[in-house]
Amino acid sequence: MSSAKNSVKTKTRKRYYRKRIELFRLIDKIKLWPSRTGVLHGIKTIEKKGNIAIITTHCNKTFEVNNSRNSRAARLLRNKIFNKVCGTCKIPEWKLEKFDATRFSRKSGSFLNQTNA
Ligand SMILES: [Zn+2]
């Protein structure tokens, strides 16, 4: 009489997301990037090359980032720490509002779970 939940165990990647989400998944979804100086930029393109991604912002800054769960950027995005929004990137209001409404749960998964809701 075991439940189906317990009996289904696949070796494939699990589909839930935790707080320590990979940086790439995070920026894929929110398309925002916090700079070292606390400016929030909009991401135009993300070009993934293995564990490195080349990010281009709307203000035409290009840089490489590592796919780290513990990176500065991932932490800043999760905690929504930024001083101001880049004027050149012109991040639309709805995107900022969506970002502001984003919740990162300590218990189970992040806002990425809610995208299909
Ligand atoms: Zn910018």
Structure, described:
This protein is 24% helix and 23% strand. With 117 residues, the chain is an alpha+beta fold. The protein has one domain (19-103). Strands 1, 2, 3, 4 and 5 form a five-stranded mixed sheet that branches. A hairpin with a 4-residue loop joins strand 3 and strand 4 (62-66). It is globular, with a radius of gyration of 16 Å. The chain binds zinc ion. Zinc ion binds at residues 41, 57-59, 86, 88-89.
| Alpha carbon gap, first and last residue | 31 Å
Cα Rg: 16 Å
The profile of the biggest β sheet is: 5 strands, mixed
How many beta-strand runs?
Answer: 5
Mean pLDDT: 79
Basic shape: globular
Q: N-to-C SSE series?
A: HHEEEEHEH
* Helix residue percentage: 10-25%
Q: Give the bound compounds.
A: zinc ion
Question: What is the element layout, followed by pairings?
Answer:
Blueprint: H1 4-7, H2 23-30, E1 32-34, E2 39-49, E3 52-57, E4 62-66, H3 72-79, E5 84-85, H4 93-100
Parallel strand pairs: 2-5
Antiparallel strand pairs: 1-2, 2-3, 3-4
Bound molecules: zinc ion.
GO molecular function: aminoacyl-tRNA ligase activity
Protein name: Pyrrolysyl-tRNA synthetase, N-terminal region
Organism: Desulfamplus magnetovallimortis
